[in-house]
Amino acid sequence: MKKTAAIILIIIMVFALCSCEAPTGYESSSQTYTHHTEQTESTDQENSNKKGNGQNITQTGFTKPLPDEYLRQADQQGTINELTYKSKDYTGDMSAISKKAYIYLPYGYDPNDSDKKYDIMYLMHGLGGTAEQAFTEYEGAGKNLIDNMIQNDVIKPMIFVSATFTEDDQPQDDLFLSMTEVLSFHRDFIQNLMPAVESSYHTYAQSTSDNDLKASRTHRAFGGFSLGGVATWQEFALDSDYISCFLPMSGPYRWFSGSTDSQSKAVCDTLESVVERHHLDERGYFIYACTGTEDELEPQIDIQLDAMLKRSDVFTPEHLVYYKMKGGKHDMYAALNFIYNALPLFFQ
Question: 2-345 architecture in CATH?
Answer without folding.
Answer: 3-Layer(aba) Sandwich (3.40)
